[in-house]
């Protein structure tokens, strides 16, 4: 479904991603782990079309989206990709329902239709009684679940999450982890999650380990190209 091939990215003299390839299939949960500075967030942002590689390709269903211009890319992103960040990034002056409805309205859905879909998703995430609450009136776990509902509103093919439990206590971490696992079960939702939370890897199909801009475990790269190729061969 999503194929990153030979991605390179540098900032000045610093090589942040060094020939990274990764396949992301339907209904998968993939976690990306590794020390700070390994390039995890940069990889997530390039896969999520928020950033562009210096070289290499990002294919969505065989189409290289690195060739899209900015306008086409943002329309593509709004319809196909959801994001969850460490801090919920909900708009403080809007209710939970309005925050979730907003990306659907940007995608062209009517206000009424978007609000209805937002209410359904918030209900699905156990926030049916928080529709009119503003972020400041919600707990950390509730805010993050509202952010997940917002990421889901346009039925994206994939959700990229950068440290989604990084600012939560252990109870809320457990809650978000089981929410993500449940969404994969119920909706077949694909997730790619950068995390330092070791328990998050327990719900993953694959865990990609990164250091110094490279993937350390080639068996986690996925995709047909890599089947049966052992690690050392791939590194040659
Ligand atoms: P991780 O998510 O694994 O901690 P990042 O992808 O955030 O790693 O960053 C990898 C390296 O790239 C770090 O050394 C970071 O300082 C650097 N970096 C990231 N973004 C930028 C940027 N916009 N400008 C310069 N350096 C950056």
In short:
The chain has helices at about 40-45, 70-80, 95-105, 110-125, 140-150, 170-185, 230-235, and strands spanning about 1-10, 15-25, 30-35, 55-60, 65, 80-85, 160, 190-195, 205-210, 215. The protein is of the alpha/beta class. The protein has a single domain (about 1-90, about 140-235), classed as P-loop containing nucleotide triphosphate hydrolases (Rossmann fold, 3-Layer(aba) Sandwich).
Protein described:
It is a single chain. The chain has 236 residues and is α/β, with parallel strands linked by helices. The chain has one domain (2-91, 141-235): P-loop containing nucleotide triphosphate hydrolases (Rossmann fold, 3-Layer(aba) Sandwich), CATH 3.40.50. Helix content is 34%, strand content 24%. The chain has seven helices and ten strands. It has helices spanning 40-47, 70-80, 96-106, 111-124, 140-152, 170-187, 231-235, and strands spanning 2-11, 14-24, 29-33, 55-60, 63-64, 81-84, 158-162, 190-194, 206-211, 214-215. It has a six-stranded mixed sheet, sandwiched between helices. Strands 2-1-4-5 form a four-stranded antiparallel sheet, covered by helices on one side. A hairpin with a 2-residue loop joins strand 9 (206-211) and strand 10 (214-215). Helix 3 runs parallel beside helix 5. The two termini are 26 Å apart. Residues 226-236 have low confidence and may be disordered. The structure holds adenosine-5'-diphosphate. Adenosine-5'-diphosphate binds next to strand 2 and helix 1.
